[in-house]
TrEMBL record:
A GO MF label: heme binding
Key words of the record: Dioxygenase, Oxidoreductase
GO biological process, one term: L-tryptophan catabolic process to acetyl-CoA
Pfam families: Trp_dioxygenase
Transmembrane segments: none
Organism: Winogradskyella flava
Name of the protein this chain belongs to: Tryptophan 2,3-dioxygenase
Record lineage: Bacteria, Pseudomonadati, Bacteroidota, Flavobacteriia, Flavobacteriales
Length: 309
């Protein structure tokens, strides 16, 4: 029995859509007629995606290392996607805000709980070999990781504690950039000389970071939170969600990462140095980094013990 369905409604809706944009509905219907059916591999671009894991060695576990970093970058993209919707939302309400924070936290929970793929999912011998082909690169050069930081909180909360008293809202972004907490990982603390890790990173992303820092300085998660009505800022579920996000990114994920780094770099094989050349043990531990996106949502006691437990 041929399909007798009445398509008047949908055709009418299509005509309305294309009239609004001065398009000829017929052309688009012919387009439908002649277009080939979509396939999963075309829609998800699996061919392109699965050809992006390009090893520098023949060591099988290098594939695990590359693919897991790429998974992280895809999740970082999803996190930035959610944050941008909070940043751009007119008439931001507490339910919308909370839902987005919960999504973002869920993504970071996944990155944290799955970090064992790195810590226990590769042979130490293999990692300690293929890592030599990575020097001077490092996950430190993940641009999206920095964008998530700029999009989550006000710049002052990302400035190295030693320089915070001299920096305020009127400080030029280029000066603030030079005093971000992570600059310390790429600078010789005596001479201030920048490492290849940091020089390469800045050459590639500094302009983009400065534009993003300026754009998000007035619409990051913390600034948008403070725009909510006072009562909403006391909303227990929202505050809980904000604290969970802050702690997951800046303590739980950081510790999972730190423990993975120790598992390999402290394995006794190799020189104990980081591929990026930072003083990693001091730099990577949350009790030293003390990166806190939403300090006003924590008690004095919690702030004092940050990253210690
Ligand atoms: C075996 C696995 C890993 C090891 C041994 C490791 C080691 C390190 C070390 C030593 C640093 C300090 C910078 C340096 O001198 O290189 C670092 C920084 C970093 N890594 Fe990893 N890493 C691993 C996996 C990952 C993964 C899967 C990601 C996800 C993208 C990642 C993202 C980062 C980021 C964002 C930083 C900068 C952190 C900050 O500035 O606080 N790492 N990593």
């Amino acid at each position: 029995m041929p399909d007798q369905h009445n398509y008047d409604d949908i055709i009418g809706a299509l005509q309305e859509k294309y009239n609004k944009i001065d398009q000829d509905t017929d052309d688009h219907l012919y387009g439908l007629l002649y277009s080939k059916p979509i396939t999963y591999w075309d829609y998800i671009q699996t061919d392109a995606l699965l050809n992006l894991q390009i090893q520098r060695t023949t060591l099988p576990d290098e594939m695990v290392f590359i693919a897991y970093h790429q998974i992280n970058e895809l999740i970082f993209k999803m996190i930035l996607w959610e944050i941008s919707q909070v940043a751009e939302k007119n008439n931001l309400d507490v339910i919308f805000f909370e839902n987005k924070i919960m999504r973002i936290s869920r993504y970071f929970d996944m990155l944290t709980t799955s970090f064992n793929i790195m810590r226990e999912g590769m042979e130490v011998e293999q990692y300690m070999k293929f890592r030599y082909t990575l020097t001077p690169a490092s996950g430190f050069q993940s641009a999206q990781y920095r964008l998530i930081e700029f999009a989550s909180t006000e710049l002052i909360n990302l400035i190295d504690y030693r320089f915070r008293k001299d920096i305020d809202r009127n400080t030029p972004y280029t000066h603030a950039f030079e005093h971000l907490y992570w600059q310390a990982a790429g600078k010789d603390h005596k001479t201030g000389k920048k490492s290849t890790l940091l020089i390469n990173f800045e050459n590639r992303y500094k302009d983009e970071f400065l534009r993003f820092m300026e754009a998000y300085n007035t619409k990051n998660l913390w600034t948008r939170f403070k725009e909510l009505p006072q009562d909403d800022q006391k909303d227990i579920d929202l505050v809980k969600a904000m604290r969970h996000f802050d702690y997951t990114v800046n303590v739980t994920w950081v510790m999972a990462h730190y423990n993975a780094a120790r598992h390999y770099i402290d394995s006794g094989i190799g020189d104990g140095e980081a591929t990026g050349g930072s003083d990693w043990k001091k730099y990577m531990h949350p009790k030293y980094q003390r990166r806190i996106f939403f300090p006003d949502l924590w008690t004095e006691e919690e702030l004092k013990n940050w990253g210690n437990n």
